[in-house]
Design goal:
There is one protein chain. The protein has 234 residues and is of the alpha/beta class. The protein has a single domain, classed as Nucleotidyltransferase, domain 5 (2-Layer Sandwich), CATH 3.30.420.10. It is 41% helix and 18% strand. A seven-stranded mixed beta sheet has the order 4-5-3-2-1-6-7, with helices on both faces. Strand 4 and strand 5 form a beta hairpin. The longest helix has 25 residues. It is globular, with a radius of gyration of 18 Å. The two termini are 18 Å apart.
């Protein structure tokens, strides 16, 4: 059984962080900036990137999609309305970050192959660290080995970015949008939302829109996997 998965994250509010943490995050910027203007630009880029680290960010959506059944779920944060709806065979369920992580690790126990796009470098480390923060132990080791032939039985993680670039042999890796475009797959970015917009959407309380964007990522990753599985897998 195969499971597609993808996450969306946001960063903390830099201005609300304690002084020591702010200093730790900005020390290298101060050293490398040659002017006040350059410092301001680098500072804004750093603030925008806080959601890329589990040390300064959190998970706001986890999407899962069963390849064979073509059904799945998106667990997402929606403090204003903890409801449940279904769109395109995908259940959208609102809950806390801790509940999302618990639900994810409970669900993956029933699968043997896991498919992501850049999951080894981002999604899985983020999920594992945030789980540990909440006192949750992952039920599967999705980081056992980069190479498929050496991964643990019952927890094979197919990172499509690794596979399509032949473990980094391709010079330009490309993002999910570029790979989708190359294979004629509808990109989730075509709806006008990108991963960089998630933080702003969360601030604007457009929680459902984040979950809907995640559905697009799941669908694109599934179709891309099917191309790789049929034409490039050995």
């Amino acid at each position: 059984m195969k499971l597609i998965f993808d996450i969306e994250t946001i960063g903390e509010d830099f201005d609300k962080l304690d002084e020591t943490t702010q200093d730790s995050l900005t020390r290298w910027i101060k050293k490398e900036s040659e002017s006040e203007e350059e410092y301001k630009i680098a500072l804004e880029e750093m603030k925008d990137g806080l959601g890329f680290s589990p040390l300064t960010g959190e998970v706001v959506a986890i999407g899962v999609l069963d390849v064979e059944k073509n059904k799945g779920a998106v667990y997402y944060q929606n403090p204003d309305n903890p409801s449940e709806v279904t769109e395109e065979g995908i259940k959208l369920q609102a809950m806390s970050e801790k509940e999302m992580l618990e639900r994810f690790w409970q669900g993956v126990e029933h699968y043997e192959e896991f498919v992501s796009f850049n999951g080894r470098a981002f999604d899985v480390p983020f999920l594992m660290v945030r789980s540990a923060v909440h006192g949750i132990r992952p039920s599967k080791d999705l980081m056992s080995n980069r190479y498929l032939s050496l991964q643990k039985y019952g927890a094979k993680h197919i990172d499509l970015l690794d596979q399509l670039t032949f473990y980094g042999a391709v010079r330009k890796k490309g993002n999910l949008h570029l790979w989708s475009r190359a294979f004629g797959i509808k990109s989730p970015k075509e709806e006008g939302v990108t991963g960089e917009d998630v933080g702003k959407l969360f601030q604007e309380k457009k929680f459902l829109k984040i979950a809907q964007y995640n559905i697009g990522d799941l669908r694109a990753t599934k179709t891309l996997f099917e191309y790789w599985d049929e034409y490039l897998r050995f």
